[in-house]
Design goal:
Elements lengths: L9 E11 L4 E7 L11 E8 L3 E11 L1 E10 L18 E3 L12 H4 E4 L4 E6 L9
Protein name: DUF2141 domain-containing protein
Pfam families: DUF2141 (PF09912)
InterPro entries: DUF2141
Amino acid sequence: MTTAFRSETKGSLVVSLSNITQTGKINVAIYREGGDFPDDKFLVKTQTGDCKSGVCTFKFQDLPFGEYAIAIYQDEDGNGKLNTGTFGVPTEPFAFSNNFKPRWGGPSFEKCSFKFQQDKQSISITMINSLFGGD
């Protein structure tokens, strides 16, 4: 009799968002490495949900274990995209995994990446409502 051990290759990832101060749908996108980040060519999974002020949670099922980065934005005006102003600075709330906060230039996969290695893994991300003071 042969007994084979099967290791899990997929699991669920729970993404908890805090510092939600505005209303509007929140879009959470998980990316794998490749090219510029975030780039939809490397999009793995996405979810959109209505969140009220405070905290919001998204659960991604059947995500293959691996290295990922997350980009989030809150669509306050319902146009389906992240609005930006001068020099591409977001004018709507946004966030990245590792709580990366851009100073000069945008995010990179390396600065935002994390290892997803176990089922029911959780990460916490704080929304950025403004790059110019406040939160």
